[in-house]
């Protein structure tokens, strides 16, 4: 009788172990399916493209600041490239929100850049009164951008975008002041922070689009 119980236990154990690879295989397959949804090619492409345009934003903004403060002959060309970047950002949202919305975002971002250019000129001239007035306008423009985006996508919260944009303005200000002082280490540190910050903003925008238009991904 005892031997029969032992045999039954062994047979049950063998049956359980024989089923385990199948269960693990099913779990692995389900896990892979989840990953494939989270990392679909279209989502990866949007994430890559979004990060690139915002990294370009930091690169060409800093390049323009250096050119303007140093009176470099490439100042106009750099500004043209920087302004093109704003259209690139607008173009990136057109497939989801339409041409008019993309151009509107580009216009708001161009205003952001043009105000920044005036701030650089005023700061270089030592005109602090104009700098303060322009900074108020700069933050008003940031509010307009945050309002526009949050109205387009419920996943983009106004306060989150406003905080992100205000921090961006602060980092640009730090770059301008560091360049005026010739404090290149501070300039580099602020530029690095700004780049990381803009990548974070890019990811917020990407995640919002994917959540709003899951059928496209």
What does this structure look like?
- With 217 residues, this protein is mainly alpha-helical.
- It folds into two domains: 1-38; 40-216, no CATH class.
- The chain is built from seven helices and no strands.
- It has helices at residues 2-38, 41-70, 75-97, 99-124, 128-152, 158-181, 184-212.
Mean pLDDT: 88
What spatial form do the alpha-carbon principal axes imply? globular
Distance separating the two termini: 62 Å
Structural class designation = mainly alpha
> What about the largest sheet?
none
Give the total of domains. 2
Q: Beta-sheet strand percentage?
A: under 5%
User: N-to-C SSE series?
Assistant: HHHHHHH
Q: How many strand segments? A: 0
Uncertain runs: 2-36
Number of helices: 7
Compact description:
This protein is an all-alpha fold. Helices cover 89% and strands 0% of the residues.
Please name the defining characteristics of this protein.
217 residues, mainly alpha, 7 helices, 89% helix, globular
Write the layout of secondary structure elements.
Layout: H1 2-38, H2 41-70, H3 75-97, H4 99-124, H5 128-152, H6 158-181, H7 184-212
Helix pairs in contact: 2-3, 2-4, 2-6, 2-7, 3-4, 4-5, 5-6, 6-7
